[in-house]
Amino acid sequence: MFQRILIANRGEIALRIIRACRELSVEVVCAFSEEDAGAAYLGLADRAICIGGAAPRDSYLKSDRVIAAAEVAGADAIHPGYGFLSENAAFADKCRECNIEFIGPSADSMRLLGDKAAARTLAKKVKVSIVPGSDGVLEGDNETIKVAQKIGFPVIIKATAGGGGRGMRVVHDKTDLLAAIKQAKQEADGAFEKSDVYIERYIDRPRHVEVQILADRHGNVVHLGERDCTLQRRYQKLLEESPSPAIDSRMRSDLCSSAVKLAKAAGYDNAGTVEFLVDAKKRFYFIEVNARIQVEHPVTELTTGIDLIKAQIRIAAGEKLEFSQKAVKPRGHVIECRINAEDPDENFRPCAGVIEKFRLPGGPGVRVDTHGYEGYRLSPKYDSLLAKVLVFQPTRPEAIRCMQRALGEFTIEPLKTTLPFLQRVLAHPDFVDGSIDTGFAERTF
Ligand code: MV4
Q1: Same domain, yes or no: 169 and 250
Q2: Which band of pLDDT confidence, cut at 50, 70 and 90, is reported for residue 230?
Q3: Residue 351 CA, ligand 1 centroid: distance in Å
Q4: Is 292 designated active site?
């Protein structure tokens, strides 16, 4: 096991990782930016090291500073959390060159899966269902037109270096196709310094279901069931739950074994998420792999009882998975609500400022992950995620009721938050009967 871990992240996930390190009796050093200097979670680390200015590119994204901090602190591993450097293969390489373990998958599997067209090709090779579309990246106008006509309109253009909705474009008609490709390539070049794109048939009104996997460095891969993340707005997830209300046990077992098959084919290790779209006819299609721990990982921790952060650390330290697939038994129903400091009445505009009153929900079946407290100054420079409220109940109707109760107990003043919006979602008949799709939030509210 490691002696000392450096956390290259901030906010609730930094606090989550500090807690895991404590429970593993591993010393913990937290990197922070000047903007985060006063944050209370830093006091729970053994040491905190300032790595630069407020802007992420001046601190949390500066790989050399992060590695220097780890060396100064004598850390033998770095946990990147999510976002920032978490899916940066070059950073993972640098860590290992410096004899520091990167807590995540190998740089090679990150590179492979970070290329979404290559991930599709791999899925196809191992017979995991993919959305009909191009084989790899598109090469030239003739091929583009041919593929689009074969799969039929509407089609969606995606950047191979994209993901999470960035750099996508829907085309409804052949006449718009080539201009859209040109624009998409320009955008992708600007955003990712890579202009490669591919196309897929556009799936109308899908659900978004993802499978959590854990893989060790000895070839063992298990899945931990699925999460349904259909409730989103502009590619930002607002609520996640497990099990998915949209799939039955046969489909679940297909979905989960597809995820394991893909992880094995990619030579994947550590925690990862395999994302699928589910169409109205309940067919599922692989779309991409997230090679990191995700915001919504606690949903799976509550259904399975497995601590995913501790598992990540143990795997990176070379340990074998301590349970078999058969021993993973998801139970009950879990819902997570993301409490963002955003004003739902002002198009979800982020709001910053000092929290004056902060009363957390609690009681049976409630977990809250937050770095917030009374007196905390929420910075406008970072993500507006302030808290995650999770409930764990035997059934979905009980979980919904419990969440309504928990959100009702949560007082955050004077900042505007997504709390009232989430209450409206939980009371909506389409959410309650489990019949929403990814366009629900934008259409309905
Ligand atoms: C799609 C799609 C429809 N058809 N691909 C958006 C995020 C990225 N991970 C993939 N995304 C989509 N890919 C095809 N072939 C619709 C979306 C999509 C979406 C997916 C998941 C969750 C929310 C979404 C919201 C809008 C569009």
Answers
A1: no
A2: very high
A3: 27
A4: yes
330 and 232 in a common domain:
yes
Of 172, 229, 235, 284, the residue with max ligand 1 atoms within 8 A of its CB, to mutate for a pocket test, comes to: 235
Residues 6 or more apart in contact with residue 25 via CB below 8 angstroms = none
CATH of the domain at 175: 3.30.1490.20
Model pLDDT for residues 65-118, shown as the tens digit of each residue: 999 999 999 999 999 999 999 999 999 999 999 999 999 999 999 999 999 999
**Which of 177, 201, 225 finishes a domain?**
201
Mean of pLDDT values over 341-355 = 96
Q: Which of 65, 207, 292, 314 is catalytic?
A: 292
> Which pLDDT value is given to residue 165?
75
Going 314 to 312 to 384 to 432, the CA torsion angle's sign is negative
Q: For ligand 1, say whether the CB of 280 is within 6 Å of any of its atoms.
A: no
Q: Pick the closest to residue 438 from 299, 300, 258, 278 (CA basis).
A: 278
Q: Is 210 touching ligand 1 by the criterion CB < 6 Å?
A: no
Whether 116 lines ligand 1, by a CB cut-off of 6 Å, is no
pLDDT at 164 over 80: no
Would residue 67 count as lying in a domain? yes
Average pLDDT, the chain: 97
Query: Which is more confidently placed, 167 or 198?
Result: 198
Tell me the CA–centroid distance for residue 170 and ligand 1, in Å: 10
Is the residue at 331 inside a domain? yes
> Is 163 a residue whose pLDDT tops 90?
no
In terms of domains, do 277 and 384 share one? yes
Q: Which atom of ligand 1 is nearest to the CA of 201?
A: 15
Quick check: is 124 in a domain?
no
Domain range for 385 is: 207-444
CB distance 204 to ligand 1 below 6 Å:
no
Cα torsion through 10, 11, 12, 13, rounded to 10: -10
Residue with tokens 């905390």: 376
Per the structure, the count of domains in the chain is: 3
CA distance 67 to 160: 28
232 lines ligand 1 (CB under 6 A): yes
Contacts (Cβ under 8 Å, ≥6 apart) of 274: 210, 211, 213, 258, 259, 262, 263, 286, 289
Specify if 259 maps to a domain: yes
- Residue-wise pLDDT tens digits, 280-308: 999 999 999 999 999 999 999 999 999 99
The pTM of the whole model exceeds 0.90: yes
Please indicate whether residue 231, judged by its CB atom, sits closer than 6 Å to ligand 1: no
- CA-nearest residue, atom 7 of ligand 1: 165
**Which residue lies with its CA nearest to atom 15 of ligand 1?**
202
Closest CA to 288 of 217, 362, 229: 229
